[in-house]
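Just curious. Invent one:
>
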Amino acid sequence: ITVEFGGTLNCNEAVYVEVTNNGKITGGQFFEVVNNRSRGIISGGSFCGEGSIWDGMIGVENEGTLENGNFECIVKNHSGGKITGGQYNKNIHNEGRISGGKFYGQVKNQMSGQITGGEFWAEVTNLIMEGGSGLTPGFQQTCKITNGTFNAQVINHTTISGGNFNALVTN
């Protein structure tokens, strides 16, 4: 299924096929991969899909905006992707921006990922990527945490400039 720019998908039935979203998803239960493109917005629904990624199964590939919804799958938030709300019960690979939401799975903040808000109830790792593995030697991409509430351990390899930390922070 492809949702075109300007289109809206709100399903009363379960969806068992891959979805590419260039418009808006406002509801439904999705059991296959959802590719939320740069213009795509997800403002509701339940996401349980599983596809493939290097370290596990991924259900939502986000390049757009995740405003709300219940995510029972791994989410990869690509550079340019935004998470502004919703509930995330599995792991998140963040290369974009997280400004809101509730996170119950581990979060890897990587590449140039930014965490500026949200509630985190599982371990968060704030990584630094250096030259090598496809990056220019000597080049660094730094992740940042500037705000949010962290109720589990934070493993920091780069920059933290704000937030509420209710558990151990290691540098």
